[in-house]
Amino acid sequence: MELTLLSFGIKTVPVGVTYTDLLRVWQEADELPAIEHAWLWDHLLPLFGPVDTPIHEGWTMLAALAARTERLSFGHLVTGNLTRAPALLAKMAATVDAVAPGRLVLGLGVGGTRQPGDTLVPREYGAYGLHIASPGEGVARLAESCQIIRRMWTEDRFDFEGRHYRLRDVVCEPKPARRPPLLVGGWGDRTLGVVAEHADIWNVPGPPHNSLEFVAERNRALDERCAAIGRDPASLIRSTQVTVSYEDPGATRAVVKELAGIGLTHIVLNLRPPFPAGVARWAADEIITPSSG
């Protein structure tokens, strides 16, 4: 029987917590070899609780945490593509890489799109004056952004003439120490096409956000997308997020086992705020180590 090697990380949502709270968890995780990566999210208003709950801007916080850790790879799950222009985002990422060379993973998603009955995106994007795209436009913008970001990190200077983005003689210096892996999150058919063409890592939320059956079906659909363009599906890392249960870690271990069984080997444990003392050690001892045997 072939052994499937799992990679584990943690996600700390920066809502209702302080920088000191986040730094405590990240520095604890940085000392634990079982935890390989750490993640924030990238929203400007909270998605739960009162709208005036304190929330930290994701890229500023990421740079601060990167500067105070030494080993963990890190990123966002995910940065909304419509929040910042792609050339600016590539420059920001290169700057964070200069703070912590070789450790950044750029996590990117479509961002806010118009959906029937949705109130969260209009509230957040309207508050900050951001463009809300149709789903089709959002995916098209994501595909162009992936092209721009990669070129910013690898080419000296270039022009870009897309349907949604246009650049003239753009330069990005210094470039990242290594090209950061590109993680794309999402599960729609059109988004999976972008994943197959551009991503190094695919991320999809697992239970309770999406059922195991849904994740398995989307994983198979991604295999088909890869095959259709001549890409080896095995070249794409499959990542998922699991919200931990502090009360029942055994239930979380069971979900991790099921997700690993359908081929998702990059596991991100979403630690719900407020973060208990020693939560990174708890995650390593109660979930990661038992799941790695």
Mean pLDDT: 97
| CATH fold node name | TIM Barrel
Main sheet makeup: 8 strands, parallel, barrel
Give the strand tally: 10
**Strand percentage:** 15-25%
Distance between the termini: 14 Å
Quaternary status of these chains? Answer: single chain
C-alpha-based Rg, rounded: 18 Å
In the sheet with the most strands, the strands line up as 1-2-3-4-7-8-9-10
CATH class term: Alpha Beta
Estimate the helix proportion, in percent: 40-55%
The secondary-structure class comes to alpha/beta
Total number of helices: 9
How many domains comprise the coordinates?
1
**So, the CATH homologous superfamily?**
Luciferase-like domain
Shape: globular
What's the CATH architecture? Answer: Alpha-Beta Barrel
* Uncertain residue ranges: none
What string, H for helix and E for strand, traces the elements in order?
Answer: EHEHEHEHHEEEHEHEHEH
Molecular structure report:
With 293 residues, the protein is α/β, with parallel strands linked by helices. It has a single domain (7-292), classed as TIM Barrel (Alpha-Beta Barrel), CATH 3.20.20. Helix content is 40%, strand content 19%. It contains 9 helices and 10 strands. It has helices spanning 19-30, 58-67, 86-99, 120-127, 135-154, 189-198, 212-228, 249-261, 279-292, and strands spanning 7-12, 37-42, 73-80, 106-109, 158-161, 166-170, 182-185, 201-205, 237-243, 266-271. An 8-stranded parallel β-barrel has the order 1-2-3-4-7-8-9-10, surrounded by 5 helices. The protein has a two-stranded antiparallel sheet with strand order 5-6. Strand 5 and strand 6 form a beta hairpin. It starts with 6 loop residues before the first strand and ends with a helix. The mean pLDDT is 97.
